[in-house]
Amino acid sequence: MYDLILKNARIPQGDDTIVTNILVRDEKIAGFTDCIEEVQAKEIIDIEGQLTLPGCIDSHTHFMYQGFPHRENFLTGTAAAATGGITTVIDMPCCSVPSARSVEQLQLKIDLCQPQSLVDFAMWGGVTGEDVREDWMHNVKEQADYGVVAFKVYMTPSVPTYPRVTDPEMLECFRAVAETGLPIGIHAENFAMCDFYVKKFQKEGRMDGPAWAEARMELAEKVAIELGISFAEDTGARLHIVHMSTGIGAKLVGEAKKRGINVTSETCPHYLTLNYQDAMSEYGAFAKIAPPLRTKRDNEELWEGLNNGSVDFIATDHAPYEIESEKAKEGMNIWTAFPGIPGVETMVPVLVSEGYNKGRLSLSKLVDILSTNAAKHYGLYPKKGALNIGSDADFTVIDLDREWTITKDMVTMCGYNPLEGLKLKGKPVKTIVRGHIVYQDGEEGALPSLTDEELKTIVHEYPAGVEEKYSGVFEGFPHLHSAEYERSYRKEHPEVIDEHIRGIKGIMVKPGFGQFVKRQSIQVLPKTITY
Fold this sequence. Notes:
allantoinase activity, 18% strand, hydrolase, L-hydantoinase LhyD, Amidohydro-rel, Metal_Hydrolase, Urease, subunit C, domain 1
C-alpha cells in the first residue's frame, strides 16, 4: 500500500522525457512503474502527462517576518513560493531582528517561522564585520554544526542588525568559513564606489530612476567579484557570488573556475529579463534593487552563463518592501526608497517560458538550474532536488502551454512587480511537497477559511512559550520590532494582512506544514565550463 501515486507524470530523462507513475510512501519517492493496475494507494493523482520536475528550490529569499512583518511574513512568502512551483526556500540571515548569527538566534528564527511555513525551508548562516571586531567568530563553526547551508556577508550596508564587512574583515570571514567547508556568499558591490557615486549623482540633482543603476555601476560589481576571487584563492574558501547582475561577472567566475578556484554564482530572473533604462524609467523605485538592473547585453550574457556553467543556478533575492512606508511614501525619491523587489512567485515560470520554451535552455539545464545544482551546492541533495528513490517526494508540475501575464497583484504581499506585463508561456499548476499537494491551480484552498483567531495566533502573535524560551533575546530586542515596522502602514492596519492572506487561492495545506531542513552533507559542484 502506497500513500500516493502520481499517475502519468512526464519526468525528465536528460533532454528527453518519459511518462511514468511515481510511487510515494512515507513522504519519500518509493518507486516508478509503467503499470499501476495491481498497485494499491490511498490516493491517485493524474498528472495527465504534464512536465514534472524535481521540486524547485529558491536558495535566496528575504521573507523578513521576524522584525519586519509589514513586508512579507513567512506565510505569505511561502504561499507565493508554492504558487510559483517552489518546494524549498533557503532564507537569508540578515533581515530579521535580531539577525541570525548564532545558534540561539537561528533557533529563534526557526521557531517563529515554522508555524507559518507552507513549504520546506533551510537557513543561511550569518557572519558580519561586527562578529570579527567583537571576537564572536566561534559562532561560525557552531552554526555550521547546527546545519546551516552557507554563510552570507555584505560588502555594502544591509540592515542595522547586520553590519557590512570591510575588506580585511571579509578576509577573516573567508578564513573562518573555509574551515567549515561551506560556501561563503558575498553581496558583491564595492562600497566605496557605490557610496561615492550615489552622493555625486545626488549632488548633481539626478532624480531619475536610471540614476540609481548608473551610480552603482557595473565596475562596482566587477572589482568586488575580483576581490572575492582573490580571497578565495588565498584561503581556499568556497566563494559564491549571490544575485550576480553582470555579464562580466559571469566571465570572471568562468575564468576563475578554469583556474581551479572554488567559486560559484547565481543570477536572478530580473537580471535575465529587464534592463535598467526601460524598467527604471517606467517603474522608478518599484524596480530599484541592489545590485541594480543592468543592460540588454548583460541579459544575454547571463543566459549564456547559465548555459556554459559560469552561472550555476537561479535564485530570486526576493525582498519586497511596503509601498506606503518604504517605496512610495510622500517625500521619498529614487535615492531614499528602499531597494528590493519580489521574485519567488515568478522564478520558475520565467525560466520555463523565457528559457526552456524559447530554446535558450535545454531540459536538462532547466532541471539543473531550478533544482539539482542548488540542492547539491547547499548540501541538501539527494533529499531535495532529485527524482531518486528515497528522495523527498517534492514535485513541480508545469503546464508548458499555459499562457498568462504577470501582474502586480499576486500572492506576495507587496503589491508591486517590475515584471508586470510580461507575457509568459508555461505555469506551475501543482506544487507537491513530501507527497502532499501544497498548491493546486484553480482550487479555493485552505487560506480563505482561516478564522480571525487562527490568523491572530499564526501571524500576529508569537508562538506560545517563545518569549519565555528566548527571554534574553527579547530583553535585548524588545518585541523583536524594527524601527521600520514601528513606522509602517500595516502595523496600524493588521486587517490588511489578514485580508490579503484570505485572498490567496490554491493553497491546500494549513500553515505549519513546511518543515525546517538541515544540511545533509557537504557537497561541491564540479567546476565545469563549456564554451
